[in-house]
Design goal:
By secondary structure, the chain is mainly α. The protein has two domains: about 1-55, Arc Repressor Mutant, subunit A; about 65-190, Tetracycline Repressor, domain 2. Helix content is about 75%, strand content about 0%. It contains ten helices and no strands. The chain has helices at about 15-35, 40-45, 50-55, 60-85, 90-100, 100-115, 120-145, 145-155, 155-175, 185-190. Helix 1 crosses helix 2 (about 40-45), helix 4 packs antiparallel against helix 5 (about 90-100) and helix 6 crosses helix 9 (about 155-175). The longest helix is centred in the middle third of the chain and has 28 residues, at about 120-145. The mean pLDDT is about 85. GO terms for molecular function: DNA-binding transcription factor activity; transcription cis-regulatory region binding. Keywords: DNA-binding. This is Transcriptional regulator, TetR family. It comes from Pseudonocardia thermophila.
Length: about 200
């Protein structure tokens, strides 16, 4: 009598493994914070071995940096699409501050950690640069549609992006400390004082 065996389980592709690791790492970092996150927990959450983590990422910092790049791009693309559809930029950013508050706090924690550990500063600088570039792109796109806005920005959308991003960082902390008093409307109102009226939909 011939025995039958179940077909072999296909080996996941490298891209699938990386995706699973990034998804799991995002959850673990959000739950534990950067300093306390363990690669063992990331591997377990992804249903993989710790060796799979190290075969795809050189270190916890390397994994975190990739998670940040991926998540930052995702948030920026979503926000830019919303603004392109006609939504006020201040309100869109405010909703991101409130809706992504846990993620923003994780970046704040990493910022403090990076300031105390010089080997992490370069990675954090890259994170902030990516955020500024995404916001600069959004502001530049808005100025292309409005000559009055272009005049107010005076050809320096990167400076406007720097100011707004700095404000967002502070608003994240205020929102975390007192969420009842710092909601979407309050954050949008604060940002609208910085953003030109045309960008804000005014």
């Amino acid at each position: 009598m011939n025995e039958t065996y179940p077909p072999p389980t296909p080996r996941p592709s490298r891209s699938d493994v990386r995706t699973r690791l990034l998804d799991a790492a995002s959850e673990v970092f959000l739950e534990a914070g950067y300093a306390d996150a363990r690669l063992t927990d990331v591997a377990r959450r992804a249903g993989l071995t710790k060796g799979a983590v190290y075969s795809n990422f050189a270190s916890k910092l390397d994994l975190f940096a990739e998670v940040v790049r991926s998540r930052t791009a995702e948030i920026a693309q979503r926000a830019m699409a919303t603004v392109a559809a006609g939504a006020p930029m201040a309100k869109t950013l405010a909703e991101a501050v409130v809706g992504e508050s846990r993620w923003s706090l994780l970046l704040t924690e990493f910022a403090v950690h990076a300031l105390r550990h010089p080997e992490l500063r370069s990675a954090y600088a890259q994170v902030r640069r990516a955020q500024r570039e995404a916001l600069t792109t959004a502001i530049t796109a808005a100025t292309a549609e409005d000559p009055a806005l272009a005049e107010r920005v005076a050809g320096r959308p990167e400076h406007a992006a720097l100011l707004v991003l700095a404000a967002v960082s502070g608003l994240v902390l205020d929102r975390s400390a007192d969420p009842a008093a710092v909601g979407v409307d309050e954050v949008a109102g604060a940002l609208s004082l910085l953003l030109p009226a045309q960008v804000d939909g005014g």
